[in-house]
Amino acid sequence: MTINPMLILQARAQARALLFEAGEFGSLDEALQPLFDYALDSGIADEIGADAMFTIVHQAFAKVLMRQPKADDYNAEDDFARSIDLAYEAIRERMAAGGKGWEPPS
After folding, report:
1. Are the C-beta atoms of 101 and 49 separated by less than 8 Å?
2. pLDDT tens by residue, the chain, 106 residues
């Protein structure tokens, strides 16, 4: 039996969001990067596009981030946006190394 990779991404994102909330990761980037790596390696980013991939991850983390205490100098949206920038950087590095690229959904 083969499990749909998008379902695996959703489950992993939900699990990592809860682990992030529990303090298991040092940063949001540490919680998110393996998700982006999985999406690239499994071909999800190519299949559904980066925007849809980020939406899946964002949905899992949104409630957790909203429950986080807000420090005056912490911006959760900026932190998430920087994590997305890291994912795009990983895509560019993969392509530069001869790996498969992705096309945005049309």
Report:
1. no
2. 788 888 889 999 999 999 999 999 988 899 999 999 999 888 888 888 888 888 899 999 988 888 776 666 777 788 888 888 888 888 888 888 888 776 666 6
Write down the pTM of the prediction.
Answer: 0.64
Helices and strands, counts by H and E, the chain: 5, 0
Q: Which of 94, 91, 63 is nearest to 76 (CA)?
A: 63
Q: Find out whether 10 and 53 touch, Cβ atoms under 8 Å.
A: no
Length of the chain: 106
Per DSSP, 74 falls in state: -
